[in-house]
Amino acid sequence: MATKEEIEAFMKTDFPQAKCTVEAVGEQLATVKHPIGFDELRPGGTVSGPVLMAVADYALYVAILGEIGIVSLTVTTSLTINFMRKPSSTKDIIGKCTLLKVGKSLVVGEVSLYSEGDENAVAHVVGTYSIPR
Amino acid sequence: MATKEEIEAFMKTDFPQAKCTVEAVGEQLATVKHPIGFDELRPGGTVSGPVLMAVADYALYVAILGEIGIVSLTVTTSLTINFMRKPSSTKDIIGKCTLLKVGKSLVVGEVSLYSEGDENAVAHVVGTYSIPR
Amino acid sequence: MATKEEIEAFMKTDFPQAKCTVEAVGEQLATVKHPIGFDELRPGGTVSGPVLMAVADYALYVAILGEIGIVSLTVTTSLTINFMRKPSSTKDIIGKCTLLKVGKSLVVGEVSLYSEGDENAVAHVVGTYSIPR
Amino acid sequence: MATKEEIEAFMKTDFPQAKCTVEAVGEQLATVKHPIGFDELRPGGTVSGPVLMAVADYALYVAILGEIGIVSLTVTTSLTINFMRKPSSTKDIIGKCTLLKVGKSLVVGEVSLYSEGDENAVAHVVGTYSIPR
Questions:
Q1: What's the first-to-final CA gap in chain D, in angstroms?
Q2: Where are the beta strands (DSSP E) in B11-118?
């Protein structure tokens, strides 16, 4: 119920350190993008795992806001990530979220994470969020 | 098989951005500490979820190195986190890892995360790592 | 690379107690069906959680066999299930699996579970399997 | 707050097919036992994964009832299992549960599963339960 612009404004306030941008949101979907630079890389040239988790968490939050509106107290209750392929050190990370259930108090969604331009996901995430009553 | 000093030196090289310190390691256990400041906080005064995931990932890696020695290609294959309580915005985060299985190719461990000085965990993590042959 | 018939024959031998049938398999996908009767129900009229987990495990295994051929030593290494909606007590359970990664030693897949005829999933599973070398 | 006898009576009614017995319960802990016979085995002589998941689910439920009393609508919302060692085909399975958080609406607990008499866990589970308001 919140627009892309409303969500972007909210996320800048609520996650001031986040580097993610909202590419698209709506209909229980969201796409976000995270630039990759020195801060996100590990020696050997790969994106650090916690950065991927952060992008997934962000994508899930954006998708939920797009569905239920700006509810700042929504909190992550669990997150499971499977790392599948080595991300590129020179491509941005794209996170594509699909909500699987939007209940009154619990939301479940999944996120596939990609190195931009590659169709094989580097990681897959399932997360659950609690919505305050 | 690696000492605390060897692991600290390795982690500084392999995770140059990490703020964690190794408090103790050995006998399939590890304790790490992460300072909490502006970069780790969210409005409302709580530690961001991805910071907690990063501390858990770090604690698992340290515990594994302590057990199998410096093997730089060890990679996280999966991680599940359950967020249980709101962390304090003014306390460091402590991660205590226990390895549950150290196999030839797969390691499984769990981490309890605490706001320093509080005995109730703020989050619980189970992670799996792949060891190259 | 194994056909539906080969997989069905193998599963009857390798999982003699399973009630699942293989509806379709191929191209990194599989669909299985589990009949629901007294043994699968709990008072109040819902399918028990462990039955759903068993159907997901079966669907993942069938999809893997369809991709890599009959490899009897393939073993589940992890499974995460999120229960989302109450299953019908009078409908069969359908499991639809999609493999996310087929590596040399590790396979990752997801399964959506449905009460037959309902398009909203009752549960979602992500599983990982180890393939012997 | 429910006694072992009250929980056993309730579980017989609520999970009529379950073969588990309650060995001990109280103080946010529970120990359960599941006999292993033909129905639980797979060719090659190991306990099937879904049986282990069922034992963990049972142990979590018993521990929760021991803590909050008989609340029949408590439902599993998520469960993550890591399989770590091959269970014995001739030993009962023991499940030892520890609750990690008992909130007003959400409970988190972990379970270690053992082949009786072996101190190395065959699998580890983290589960979350929702308590109706």
A1: 17
A2: 21-26, 29-34, 41-42, 46-47, 75-83, 93-102, 106-115
Answer yes or no: do C128 and B77 touch at CB < 8 A. Answer: yes
> Could you tell me which chain A residue has the CA closest to the CA of B18?
A39
**Alpha-carbon span D74 to D65, nearest angstrom:** 9
Interchain pair A106, D130: CB under 8 A: yes
**Which DSSP letter does residue A120 get?**
S
How far, in Å, CA of C13 to CA of B36, rounded?
56
In chain A, which residues have their Cβ closer than 8 Å to the Cβ of D106?
77, 130
* pLDDT per residue as tens, chain C (133 positions): 799 999 999 999 888 888 999 999 999 999 999 999 988 888 778 899 999 999 999 999 999 999 999 987 788 999 999 999 999 999 999 999 999 999 988 999 999 999 999 999 999 999 999 988 7
pTM for the full model? Answer: 0.95
A100 to C124: CB separation less than 8 angstroms, yes or no? yes
Complex ipTM more than 0.90, yes or no: yes
Q: How far does the CA of residue D90 sit from the closest CA of chain A (Å)? A: 33
Q: How far apart are CA D114 and CA D123, in angstroms?
A: 7
Nearest residue on chain C to A112, judged by CA atoms? C100
